[in-house]
Write a structure and sequence with these properties.
The structure is a single chain. The chain is of the alpha/beta class and about 300 residues long. The chain has 7 helices and 14 strands. It has a 6-stranded mixed beta sheet, covered by helices on one side. The longest helix has 15 residues. It is globular. About 45% of the residues are buried.
Amino acid sequence: MINRRTFVKNIGLSSILLTTGAFPLLAREDDVDILKLTILHTNDVHSRIEPFPMDGSKNQGLGGVAKRATLISQIREQEKHVLLLDAGDIFQGTPYFNFFGGELEIKLMSQLGYDAGTIGNHDFDAGVDGLAKQLVHANFPLIVSNYDFSENEMHNKTIPYKIFKKGNIKIGVTGVGIEMAGLVPTALYNKTVYNDPIANAQKWATWLKQDQKCDYVICLSHLGYKYNDSKLSDQVLAANTRDIDLIIGGHTHTFLNKPDRAVNLDGKPVLINQVGWAGIVLGRIDVLFERNSKDTCITCQNLLVS
């Protein structure tokens, strides 16, 4: 494993339409000493299976699993190393959830080839037993490090981290969920114990980066991008941890035109990205790893699913 320390430089942060095929890179990605990792991500899809109806609303025609599948397929044809991740709230928002209890959403995510996701508060809307029941259809893990499910049906159905190998690059992924008290009826999360997200994210990020020598560490977060008070958010998480390179967030339905750049406890950059809700936007972050350099180039383009 090549030893790399990451110095993150942001290049060309922008938004492009689904129909835009060109992707300008400011690095020689054909160089044998450079590996390109493409991270695609969603959050708060909320059972939006079909595009928004053509009813004159601002979101008309946007989103939909079929369009997202086409976009993901096109990117996978173009790029060799792709990760597809979700930051929670898969369920609730359309009659598909009311009728099928989340089965359709999980089956479609499996067909789209998601590599991992985390849990949002609305993923408990059919109870922990309802969530556990639907995971039989999942061929991807739910990653969350700060929920203790030992006393309910979700016991042993999540993992605190996963390591992905792309070429000679190791990517560590962990995840954290929001406190459910006040958001979710107690009966629905049924004895789930909420633990400190910062402590648990730090525990696994350090283990992934320092012990397992991962080149890049991602935290899937359903804490929310930021708040006007001291409430725990992705910005607070970034500022109070180390060893996390990228936070992929959810919960606040924040449409970021480009990822936010925060600074961690060591003064190093952490990227935070979130792409709204309902599958309207597909997040895309390309990371170029250089074999014999401390530099890691980042290009970010959030793609409108139109």
